[in-house]
Amino acid sequence: MFTIKGKTCDWELVIGLETHIQVLSNSKVFSGASADYNPSVSPNTQVSMIDAGMPGMLPVLNKHCVEQVIKFGLGINAEISRTSRFARKQYFYPDLPQGYQISQPADEAPIVGRGWIEIMGDDGKQKKILIERAHLEQDAGKLKHDVHPNKSFADYNRTGVALLEIVTFLDTKNPENNSYISSPDEAERYLREIREIARALGVSKANMEEGSMRADVNVSVRPVGSKEFRTRTETKNMVSFKFIKSAIEYEARRQIEIYENGGTVSQDTMRYHQGEGTTSVMRSKENALDYRYFPDPDLLPLEISDETIERIRSTMPELPSATRARYTHDFGVSEYDAARLTESTDISRWFDTAVNGNDKRAKSIANWMISELFAHPENWDVKNEKSGIVDEMRIITPSDLSELVDMIAANEINGKQAKEIFIKMLDGESGTPHEIADKFGMKQITDTAAIETAVDNVIAANPSQVEQYKSGKVGLLGFFVGNVMKATGGKANPAVVNEILRKKLA
């Protein structure tokens, strides 16, 4: 359990996250304009009359965006509402031309209702995190204040891009229910799981660096053992796992200091300062009444049929949680390695292709991927640099790695030779691992007669070390192994060398 030690007692955290992910779609949620708003695109060139809020322009709901949201809802084990509607959220939006946001009312059923995901808790056990809702809305544009000393500019290319907001649930009526996030590390694990579900389903790139995933972080504290939920603050628009964890811890300590000095925490919206790792009040937190929802008269209620839900369910791939469970259960891969291998569907697909149904090679392939392949980014072909999603290996293929691992298992090459072959492949050497091993004479010597000859020569050349070994300095075995390997050009099978040396030195 994560706690912070205060002057008067130990404190625990109660964390809520409102995560926004942009939904992958060619066009925007209520218009036919392109949803591409990359910095390379000229400002205000992807804006329709609807996005610009021109009088008489009527929004039309994008069916593909709705189906993407349903798919994500199924991925988080959520209820899918058969009927939902859209409303105008009358909070002031300076970066939306119409002055309001089209969203789904907080007090009515959204497309995605109550759901949950599992993460690894701080105690090392699986922990269920409850999700209250996930609703579809339109994203806002961008205001630019640093272009001109006396003017601000608006870029509406992002205006109207489909946005899915996922809100965690705090069961205030049942204080014994701890299905909420309670530490900075759990917050990161939750966000990473949301990201990987979205990517696996093709719902979103969910890339914090480009802004297609961001989070508002709600934090409150209470003495350990207390069942009271205290006033929370909300830190807005966080786009880094590192900064989210830093903001949570700073804000928790700030609130603890206020309570311990006899003060009261106010429900404020906070701003995070990256350079200092601190938060400050941006504005007083709005209440629900400040948003003033009312039904959008231009959009009919949304009806979702059972047939639509089942059709979407039938197209869903294996989710990261199921893939991790399969890797740990079927392949004996550690939970850490399984998490690394499911950071994207492209990586897990590559791993499965390399294993190719041979469970015995799975752990070795996992070790090679994590320790070697991931350490060489030049081997990854990132087709969309801004997405950060790996599409495929550019140089070393799944069959290359499985062949290399099989050669080690068959004692055709040793670990040192395997790494040499691996580096040559990275450097662009043509051919399979077998062909490269033949070309450079890297095949391992397994002929015991040849190895015995080398062992005899090394023993004969080092009589003093032999006497020391026999007198109890068994650590000298490594000295003899090293000399035999040197004598054989590193080609001898180390296991065979060890076995023969032990017998002869005994």
Overall shape: elongated
Number of helices: 15
**Helical percent range?**
25-40%
Unreliable segments of 5+ consecutive residues: 381-392
- Give Rg in angstroms: 30 Å
What's the average pLDDT?
90
Structural class: alpha+beta
The domain count comes to: 3
- β-strand percent reads 15-25%
Biggest sheet overview: 9 strands, mixed
Distance between the terminal alpha carbons, to the nearest Å?
Answer: 54 Å
Give the total of beta strands: 18
Tell me about this structure:
- Strands 1, 2, 6, 7, 10, 11, 12, 13 and 14 form a nine-stranded mixed beta sheet that branches. Strands 5-4-15 form a three-stranded antiparallel beta sheet, with no helix packed on it.
- By secondary structure, it is α+β, with helices and mostly antiparallel strands.
- Helix content is 34%, strand content 20%.
- It folds into three domains: 3-308, no CATH class; 318-439, no CATH class; 448-505, Arc Repressor Mutant, subunit A.
- It contains 15 helices and 18 strands.
Essential attributes:
506 residues, alpha+beta, 3 domains, nine-stranded mixed β-sheet, 15 helices, 34% helix, 20% strand, elongated
